[in-house]
Specification:
Largest sheet: 7 strands, parallel
Strand content: 15-25%
Radius of gyration: 22 Å
Helix content: 40-55%
Shape: globular
CATH class of the largest domain: Alpha Beta
Distance between the termini: 42 Å
Number of helices: 17
Structural class: alpha/beta
Number of domains: 2
Strand order of the largest sheet: 3-2-1-4-5-8-9
CATH superfamily of the largest domain: Glycogen Phosphorylase B
Oligomer: single chain
């Protein structure tokens, strides 16, 4: 049965920095392709306040029929700061209510809501089934990433001091009862991995969470066509935002002694200049910059492996399944969701130390058949677990179960009311 979906999110392409906006777009388009009516509402003000780059132009009409509503105000900084501090959509509140009232949506998906409305936004949506997708750890962490004092993985709350290290003002609403009250209005919470669900529980999140992973569009014949090599020498690949927490700086020194292959770095970020300084004098390290998906395909196909050295608590890692979709294995730090993903797929190797990483790199380059076996397992697991046709039916089932639970609760509640009303 066709449903009306509304996705509420702070970031959405082209007004986005990382993978969460792209993930929202993929899910919105996947539902639209299946005949559902989908509206996405996002906040361009937040992106303009946080970005050092010129504001992008709005994309043309969505090719899959998704309606995209971009929120803008005459006071982008004021609007963003008020939402961050008060935890409600102060400037855009009336507009958001009007959109949701007029849309008569069956399902409202809350994604990254930190700067479009904060916890106050969770009260919006009328009688729609409300689904919260935890792309980050915002529900339990003011900085979203459980990276304490901007220097170490968090194993205990020191939130006020931590925000000072990030040069951010404390979020005052986190010290009230606003978040617990608003969370009670959500029907289902979704974590992107079992690891992320456990981290939410560890940091005191009081509600049950369903695990539903990220996905990519189904593989087709075009994705299996072998493209020309983008780089002449053998190479390992890193793809992601260039931030300290991604761990690239931890592994660059290996390429001073390992000259049998190059390292190609795809991505941009605040840490790029520091990383380039660190890589000065290493001719086998090349910074490629940001690449569109079509151009990136050839890099995945011809890489010996994708290196995933993150030193933070990721919720999932979309680049992992991007590599898998091209039959490329990964070498990942034994941290966060990566042991879970490799246990499910057999599509790569884990490492604890840089010495183990170096040994694994040498082994995969020296034994192409080993690389081929891992890549074949990775691709098979992608098709079974992390492609659109595998995940979207699970999502729709989660929504339907939430609707049935709500209906049952309403019936029970009505029965109790009638019982008390008897003379």
């Amino acid at each position: 049965m066709t449903k009306r979906f509304c996705f509420l999110t702070t970031f959405y392409p082209p007004f986005n920095f990382g993978g969460d906006g792209l993930a929202v777009q993929r899910m919105a388009r996947a539902l639209a392709k299946r005949g559902h009516e989908v509206t996405v509402v996002h906040d361009a003000d937040a992106f303009s306040v946080l970005s050092d780059e010129p504001a992008p132009e709005d994309e043309t009409a969505d090719p899959f029929g998704v309606q995209v509503i971009t929120l803008r105000t005459a006071m982008p900084l004021v609007s963003t700061v008020l939402t961050h501090q008060i935890g409600r959509p102060v400037v855009n509140g009336r507009k958001l209510r009007r959109i949701l009232d007029e849309g008569r949506f069956d399902v409202v998906n809350f994604n990254n809501v930190s700067l479009i409305g904060g916890p106050g936004l969770l009260a919006y949506g009328n009688d729609a089934v409300k689904v919260y997708l935890a792309h980050e750890h915002w529900l339990v962490c003011p900085t979203n990433v459980l990276w304490r004092h901007n220097r170490e993985r968090c194993d205990g709350r020191e939130c006020l001091r931590c925000q000072v290290h990030y040069k951010r003002p404390p979020q005052l609403w986190r010290y009230t009862g606003l978040l617990p009250r608003q969370l009670s209005q959500v029907d289902v919470f979704i974590a992107m991995s079992e690891f992320s669900r456990q981290k939410h529980r560890e940091f005191g999140f009081p509600h049950e969470m369903t695990v539903l992973p990220y996905f990519l569009p189904d593989a087709d014949e075009r994705s299996r066509v072998v493209l020309p090599r983008p780089h002449e020498r053998p190479f390992f690949l890193f793809v992601g935002r260039l931030e300290r927490i991604k761990g690239l700086g931890e592994i660059l020194p290996l390429f001073a002694s390992y000259r049998d292959a190059d390292l190609l770095v795809v991505g941009e970020g605040d840490h790029r200049e520091e990383l380039q300084r660190q890589a000065a004098g290493l001719p086998n390290v090349r910074f490629v910059g940001r690449l569109p998906g079509d151009a990136l395909q050839a890099y995945y196909q011809h890489a010996i492996a994708l290196l995933v050295p993150s030193i933070c608590f990721e919720t999932f890692g979309i680049t992992v399944i991007e590599a898998f979709s091209h039959g490329t294995p990964i070498i990942a730090r034994r941290l966060g969701p990566f042991p879970e993903i490799l246990e499910q797929s057999g599509g790569g190797v884990l490492f604890d130390t840089t010495g183990e990483l170096l040994e694994t790199m040498r082994g995969l380059q020296a034994l192409p058949e080993r690389r081929h076996d891992l890549g074949r397992a990775a691709y098979r697991a992608f098709c079974e677990r992390w492609c659109e046709s595998a995940v979207i039916p699970q999502y729709l089932e989660v929504v339907e179960e939430a609707r049935e639970r709500r209906t049952a609760e309403q019936v029970v509640g009505a029965g109790v009311t009638l019982q008390h009303a008897k003379p």
